[in-house]
Amino acid sequence: MSDFNQQTIEEFRANGGKVGGYFEGSDLLLLTTTGARSGRRVTTPVMYLEDGGRLVVIASKGGADDNPAWYHNLRANPEVTVEVGTETYEAKATVVDRGERDRLYARMVEKAPGFADYETKTTRVIPVIALERLT
């Protein structure tokens, strides 16, 4: 795990879900997935938006041409752990279909305009994932 992610995770947990720096003022959650090959639990800070009773995350990887590792993990093992604020719960991750993806991605761009740049940097369709609470 990168030092940046580790520091963000530690700050998030120490401050009830609040962080400074790059993510200051953003809606941030910690997403823990199970490694597709390793089986190890890996935690990643990810921006999110709310959509009804679920949370939505974007597998942008800053507009890279490949998907982030956490995306591959949740595709192989869709049961994940979500930490948001001071709450932790289990959830099921589902990649949304194209029409819903476009609607939700546009909402994320409204909230965090940098996501518009990510789409211009890559030819891949950036996946959008819904996290639905299990517990």
N-to-C CA distance = 27 Å
- Order of strands, main sheet, comes to 1-2-3-6-5-4
Helix content class: 25-40%
| Strand residues, percent | 25-35%
Q: Tell me the major beta sheet.
A: 6 strands, antiparallel, barrel
Which structural class matches the secondary elements?
alpha+beta
Radius of gyration computed on alpha carbons: 14 Å
Count of DSSP E strands?
Answer: 6
Segments where pLDDT lies below 50 for 5+ residues? none
| Apparent shape | globular
- Element order, helices and strands? HEEEHEEHHE
Average pLDDT value?
Answer: 95
What does this structure look like?
- With 135 residues, the protein is α+β, with helices and mostly antiparallel strands.
- The protein is 31% helix and 33% strand.
- It has four helices and six strands, in the order αβββαββααβ.
- It has helices spanning 3-14, 69-76, 98-111, 114-121, and strands spanning 28-34, 41-51, 54-58, 79-84, 87-95, 128-133.
- A six-stranded antiparallel barrel has the order 1-2-3-6-5-4.
- The longest helix has 14 residues, at 98-111.
- It is globular.
- The mean pLDDT is 95.
